[in-house]
Specification:
The protein is an all-beta fold.
Length: 113
């Protein structure tokens, strides 16, 4: 029985170690060998604020810098408190409602209250 894990992307067992990574020749997916140990935590990605505190649905956060809204003349001001955030996947991890509208924000510009 092999100690090398199956590919997390295509589930094929034809994988091999290559330095610090595992490689799947079937789909060309590479992943770090140390990530295979903590595969149980891979189901829930942890979203962290600017200070490294983990965020959860329903948290209240504060903007740590002024943010210009793309395609608009609106600027979200530093220090604005946002209540009841929702975490979503993708590049902009936080979905929230403010007085100016609904926005998708990056967690790097937020601080947990």
């Amino acid at each position: 029985m092999s100690t090398i894990p199956a590919c997390p992307q295509c589930a094929m067992e034809n994988t091999y170690p290559d330095g610090d990574n595992y490689v799947c020749p079937d789909c060309a997916h590479e992943w770090p060998a140390n990530a295979a140990v903590s595969a149980d935590d891979a189901d829930e990605p942890v979203v962290k604020d600017a200070n490294g505190n983990p965020l959860a649905d329903g948290d209240a956060v504060v903007l740590i810098k002024d943010l210009k809204v793309k395609g608009s003349s609106i600027t979200l001001k530093m220090g604005t408190k946002v209540k009841s955030i929702r975490l979503v996947g993708g590049d902009h991890e936080v979905d929230c409602k403010m007085d100016a509208g609904n926005f998708m924000l990056k967690a790097a510009y937020l601080r947990k209250v």
